[in-house]
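INFO batch 0412 | record 1 of 1 | parsing
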Amino acid sequence: MPSADAADTSTPQASPRAVAVVGLDCAFPGAPDPAAFWRLLNGTEHAVGAPPPSRFRGGAKGAFLADADAFDPGFLGISTAEASAMDPQQRLLLQCAWRAVEDCGVPPPELAGSRTGTYVGAMADDWARLALADPAAITPRTGTGSGRSMLANRLAYQFDLRGPSLTVDTACSSSLVAVHLACNALLTDECDLALACGVNVVIGTALDQIYQQAGLAAADGRCKPFAAEADGIGRGEGVGVVALRRLDEAVRHGDPVYAVIHGSAVNQDGRSNGIMAPHRAAQREVVTAARVRAGAEPGQIRYVEAHGTGTALGDLIEVLALDDALGARQGQRAVPLALGSVKAAIGHTEGASGMAGLVKAVLAVHNGTVPPGPPAGTENSQLGLHRRRMQLVAEPLELAEQGPGCRVGVSSFGMGGTNAHLVLGPPPPLPAAESAGAPGVFTLSADTPEALRANLRVQAAAAARTGERDLAALCRTSNRVRAAQPCHFAAVAGTPGELAQALATAAETMPEPVAAAEEPTVAFAFTGQGAQYPGMTAALYESSPLYRGFLQDASAALLEWTGAPVHELLLDGSERVHRTGLTQPALFAVEYALARTLTELGLRPGAVIGHSVGEFAAAVIAGGLDLSDAARLVARRGALMEALPEGGGMLATRAREREARALAEAEPLCAVAAVNAPGATVLSGDRAGLARIREQLERSGFGCTELTVSHAFHSPLMEPVLAAFAETADGVRAAPPRIPFHSTVHGGPLPEGTALDAAYWTAQIPATVRFEEAVGSLCAEPPTHIVEIGPKPVLCGLLRRITAARGVAALAPCRDVSSGFEQLAEVVARLYEDGLDPQWEPLYAEADRRTVRMPSHVFATQWRSWQPASPATGAALAHPAPLAQPAQASRGSHSGARGTARPATANPQSATNGQGQPLTGIRTVVAEIVGGAPSDLNEELRFYDDLGFDSVMLMELKHRLEVRFPDLGELSLPEMLASLVSIGTLATYLRGLLTTPAAV
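INFO prediction complete | emitting tokens
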């Protein structure tokens, strides 16, 4: 016999057949999510109790889900009528699968069209039996809503998955067999990702009776595996989903890995002592086959999550088979083989029991500890565990100390003899995160404001437990996985504590979030001279690699003309930034880098406007100039202006343009330099002329302020530089802008096809900056947001004074010398909340581009339904009583979903608005199909785009119309399809049929 001593601490290489568990979710009795399940397994209380009152009358005790009837159809885009017809197992799987996919760091809509397989293990078919019990209740939805075959297909349909899709029924081993098949499909390249699932919901009492009559039912409804008190099975419910990927692919993708499946096997008892009797040899063989495929020695298997139903015969045979395969019969073990079974906590979940055991084992590997779970009773001495070198887990069993070669087995055996076993191990070690704890933008979305608040509360609790080094990666994960629903929230946070506080506060105080009707339209406004200051954007340069790269690009483009790197000037905090020859290149570099940073993050402007020298960066972003040409022009412009004699001045006044211009015309060396907003006019020229103008303005009651400037920009004093500048500009490769360019030279949009050539840039130097007029043209079809591109907000204040721009949100990514990543990120966050879909990835450093697990979506539970209704009577099919529906019209079920659909009428006149007017009857029929009130359905609603009709719903519509309007006879489907544009067009079609005279 081979000895296992040396194998316990070995570090085997990952097999090329290894499969990674990259995501999971579950809901079991007393544990609505994986975190709660782990707490239950580490506690002392089991989840067994009486059946919920809403479930059925009578029936044995068991472990039941509290919310098996709850569903969130609106989130998944399913009508309430469709949801009411669906087996609760379908509903549970849809939500659990969504959460499991989110858990692996993938937004579920991203799987559409992918080679993702769906493998569902289930054995319960109570819903189909009840749905088919009343012939009058049968509709086309009975077929799609019932039957085990539709469980996997529903997942594949809803998520648009193109890999294999199958439901497995091998009785109690169904879900672990499904995992085995999913692993094989991955390893044979049938799919790239696999969702392996198990589900069980106890609705009827038939199986209770079968267990009772076969002597398999526990008197108290509780499984007591390997205990002296074991007396049979206690039934349980639950759902679990694991997302699987080949280990090498998971590592390549950077997926977080819970555990690794190294090997699996499935076999059959064959002709044993009875079709329901366990078979020792078959169990030994399946465990051995899985271990061998996993490349493990018997002694490496430290723990087995056993089938462990708590029947005297079943427990004994399982122990004997494990002894044969892994125990003392295989040689002296260095440490005992530990055993346990999740059934002690949640009962026998039948078709989902293998999944329940697997999820427990995966969490144990992930956490490095096997939890003891609630005690099942006194150890059954007849099993002889001690002499077989086995032990029950009575206290936490540390797996991590066993080394990376430690393995865990999971068994599941079917009542008809199909057996499955898996071997798990820990994931490969990951390199330590190199993040220094950078901030990020945390995003969260939901389909309704109420759902958003509920999810904010859950995320707040989780954020508080996040490590500093994981904060940015957590934010990036939220951007990738939790950002796509219509109601948005975003917060910029520098520490986990700040994030937790922001989330908790928003959950309680945020105003009603409104889903954006359409994506925002953004315009960029580029600041002019005067906004500069020493050290501008230095903090952003240090904190944003993206901005740093673009500023260095601009600095390199300017270097030939400035003689020294502009970005170093900014980082030094030098006062030389106020010298005109450096001011203009520095502003250009900052504005180019800011704009490129924002466009890289998905803020692509629909139009641009620039104030004076700001037009150069605006031209580059609009595609009218390339970077090198713009750098040469702006550097030459600044150098020529600085070389002019000093002595001019500039004067800001509250006067409007006409008053200021009338006075400036009397002064040959003065001019109106800028018209920024109502009562915000700037004059420029020689100081003596400005003094005379100021005296007259103040005498007329207009306040004036002298500006601190080196030269009289945009005045006749600029004329000496024009010839030299024009000579430089002649070599510019100008092009018409690719997006609207609102010129502050023309005071309006640059004419289509007009290039920003030498003549334009030369004329710009002395011209009045017509900012107010240009903003008016920009806002003729206003953008939703204007983002000021500059080192501090100057234009934002002016925009608030311009009538055309009122109501347009003005944002600034830089406010002052301290502005860094957070201020830039706040602009992106605000635009996301208002409906933008940013490109988040460039916001984060390479070390933070990894997935950090976060709580998955919390679904709403207001909508509840157990049974569909009979179309003829409105009565429920069986014992279950429908629960009350929510009052919210936007999310709740209407009468059809609650089992109160109106009976079909045999009188066509009762369904018309008078002779030959069938509109009322059509509304009633459509309401019965989609769920809702007939009065809510107007004639303009389209069957496909608005009401979500599919082929099954169309056939149901045809059938119901024939019943409601018997005079029509059998409708021609091809003719009817041509009329199915809207409720109104269908009414017109039927009206024609009802009023056509009979042939004579």
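INFO post-check: The chain is about 35% helix and 15% strand.
INFO record closed
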